[in-house]
Amino acid sequence: MKKANNSTTAPAMLLSACLLAGTACSTTQPGTTAETATTEQITEATVKANAAQPQPPVASKKPKELTAHGHTRTDNYYWMNERENPEVIAYLNAENEYTKQVMADTEALQEKLFNEIVGRIKQTDESVPYKKNGFFYYTRFEAGKEYPIYARKKGSLDAKEEIMVNANERAEGKSYYAAAGMNVSPDNRLVAFGEDTVSRRQYTIRFKDLQTGELLPDRIPNTTGGAVWANDNKTVFYTMKDPSLRSFKIFRHTLGTPTSQDKEVYHEADETFSTFVYKTKSEKYIIIGSSSTLSQEYRFLDAANPTATLKVIQPRERGLEYGVDHFGDSFYIRTNKDGATNFKLMKTPVGKTTKENWKEVIPHRADTYLEGTEIFKDYLVLQERQNGLTQLRVKKWNDPKTDYYVDFGEEAYTAGISVNPDFDSKVLRYVYSSLTTPSSTFDYNMETKQKTLLKEQEVVGDFDKNNYEAKRIYATAKDGTKIPVSLVYRKGLKLDGNNPTLQYAYGSYGISMNPGFSSVRLSLLDRGFVYAIAHIRGGQEMGRQWYEDGKLMKKKNTFTDFIDVSEYLIQQGYTNPDKLFAQGGSAGGLLIGAVANMRPDLYEGMHAAVPFVDVITTMLDTSIPLTTGEFDEWGNPANKDAYDYMLSYSPYDNVEAKDYPNMLVTTGLHDSQVQYFEPAKWVAKLRELKTDDNLLLFQTNMEAGHGGASGRFQPYRETALQYAFFLKLAGINE
């Protein structure tokens, strides 16, 4: 299921993929083995189908009683959590085969969609280089290759290229590969990087000598992938994961020594917190943080003295959230202290860090959410959100009158601070896009207010952004709340209620779904689709309160907001229930599952990617990765009030005998966030109870995890399947 921590706050169940009568295998009672099917029997019984009408697999029912608070639930498919059980693997393979059979008539369309999507991507491409410590760093791709090349040039962009890590070479012979980190030592000689070859987000850290090209023997397994260098060029700090994949310990490693000798410098014993480590932009301090949904705590030490004792900045308090950076002789603290719901910026001397010493720099504002900051020697940049849109505000340290906003010139867009490692720079690098404008990287001179477009994402082919129109509308929720909706479609749209429409949302962890550009999405827009992003409560588009009103005992607002947006799109003539589709992934998959139970009549089809649908069982099982850190998001079902409320919307627990829309459910066998068995059980129960003849397809990537297939192009095979599903239902064959 869940969220991954980073070096500031840790909001996030990472957004994952784009996110449903046959011969029963067997039905056995607990404790019996006589009717347990073999793999061969399952495959025979579930995959066999005639060419005219493929028959879906039907999973074995093995009732297991689960009791809490005097309430007993019977889970017929609990057995599916046994990843190594041949019966489970056979069932997943049978579902994959059934999906392949049902979608066989779209194979040519899927191939066309895949080639279309990949064909828009510039094959030979590279990121905009950024300068750090005398080197220009960038990532580039070579034509036909799946993985990036991480490279740099010394002093000038005309200098000779140094390849740090070629992920294509590292990925050879592996079904999955992901690199992380790419942290270079202060003397520019060594690079530390993480490698995951399973898709469980458990990285092994490796080190490479960039002068000799030698891969050092040091190997640190089971980490988050990042290594933070002390200023001695031989000591790194890293984060270790526990069996549930929670980041729980920070270690110090000295190059050339066995990892068995690594020193544990911090242990986060509270299972509701995760820990992480980073270095301040000033390069002066190593910061170790601990974070839960509602509280953070930070420690620091001098980066020049890596064996020094850690000092606590401010002890944790429930409800006190804060993040830390450094400038001059002060720590700068973004915090919600004293009821600052939308956060404010404060500072405190390095020698006096507890909250009674914090002094206000940027006050709290009820109408403006402070998302983040970027500190320069002469300037402070604030990333703020107002009326659902991000703004960048520039202030000069020694001139309070220098306070202005960067002008973006569009009504609906997304913008954000990019990579700015140079402390002394007067130039801010930011990224910008809109639903019609491809992702663009700008350098903005904060002194002259001149902006320079460094790169706009190239869309290969005949793309012309003037062919598309973006719009921001507001749907009214049942309680009167105005819900923003971002729309994009080809110009010339008629509001005749007859447009196929894909409605997408997430709505959890305070993660805002920004209206950004997607070249992939053009394959739907060019076939007449309207694409709608519903900015529902549970995100943070309209400020922190927007998040507070969509979690815990207010979680149902997320689902009803989505439904209210759907009804509004229908009322306004954009679409109708026979042409409206819904999509969400991870926590957004929970949204899709809940809405499917609440208003199945509103949608022709739904796609739920890596969906978190078995809410109660998962949240009661603290051995499942990251569960304990989620209690402040969903509630702790060990408490009866939370149990009852969560039970009232949990998609798996609320499946019943009625008609459901056409459904496509996708997952990954090795998913570290939402375990594969949640959607597997959900689909099995839907198959058992639903009363319609609509499609129910279940696709498991047997080699991938939460983010789907690895590589630059292969993930689009899955996208092509999803789009073909929508187009098939919409009656669009071309």
TrEMBL record:
Functional summary from the UniProt entry: Cleaves peptide bonds on the C-terminal side of prolyl residues within peptides that are up to approximately 30 amino acids long. Has an absolute requirement for an X-Pro bond in the trans configuration immediately preceding the Pro-Y scissible bond.
Protein name per Swiss-Prot or TrEMBL: Proline-specific endopeptidase
Keyword Protease: yes
Domain (Peptidase S9 prolyl oligopeptidase catalytic) ranges: 517-731
Sorted UniProt keywords: Hydrolase, Protease, Serine protease, Signal
Region (Disordered): 48-67
InterPro entries given in the database record: AB_hydrolase_fold (IPR029058), Pept_S9A_N (IPR023302), Peptidase_S9_cat (IPR001375), Peptidase_S9A (IPR002470), Serine_Peptidase_S9A (IPR051543)
Signal peptide per UniProt: 1-21
Alphabetized Pfam families for the sequence: Peptidase_S9, Peptidase_S9_N
GO MF terms, alphabetically ordered: serine-type endopeptidase activity
Similarity comment: Belongs to the peptidase S9A family.
Domain Peptidase S9A N-terminal: from-to ranges: 57-457
GO BP, sorted A to Z: proteolysis
PROSITE patterns with a match to the protein in the record: PROKAR_LIPOPROTEIN (PS51257)
